[in-house]
Design a protein that fits this description.
Elements (H helix, E strand, L loop, with lengths): L3 E4 L7 H9 L6 E4 L5 H13 L7 E4 L2 H6 L4 E4 L4 H9 L4 E6 L2 H9 L4 E5 L15 H8 L5 E4 L16 E4 L1 H5 L2 H14 L1
Parallel strand pairs: 1-2, 1-8, 2-3, 3-4, 4-5, 5-6, 6-7, 7-8
Length: 196
Amino acid sequence: MQLFIAVSPYKYLEHIDLDHYISISKEIDLLLLRVPMSRDSLCHSIEYLMDHGFPKNKLMIHSDTSLLELYDLSFIHFRENDAQAFLYKQSHAHISVSMSTHSSESIQQAQMHHLDFVFFGHIFESTSKEGYVPRTAAEIKRATSIDIPIFAIGGIDQHSLQFLPKGFQGICAISFFRDSSTKEIDSLRKVWNAYV
């Protein structure tokens, strides 16, 4: 089971961004490429990562099954309630298919369609969800009672992780993994190990 998932910021990834993810690749378990880039540009980024030592088995594609298959990758992630995720998992049992969720109903749908895990959030105040209220304690309790691996997302860092309600199998973050050094991520893992 993957524990630490870095989610790319929703922007055009430049070499400086890619070099950072290469530098922290030993400290993260997956990198989700969720970007507003053309297919050709995203292909360039994937090839740059792999050519410069980023492990192929740590790459996760967002929604584009043809890219997943082109590079023979194993992880793909979809938006909440995207029927394509359910259909793809049904016909590709060997691929790890995950989904973003914001309610226990969506989590139940993912579980019913045998997805491998879900992101659930946002858990804490987050710059990427500014103005949106985080999930309540009751929502989190309902979500984590469902029998599917659930990864917390939203405002995750060394401080907030100390207050994460029990029941999550891993964490996802945009800002923390974008901005942190290997030493800082190692410190986060120590906090995570105390959490589990």
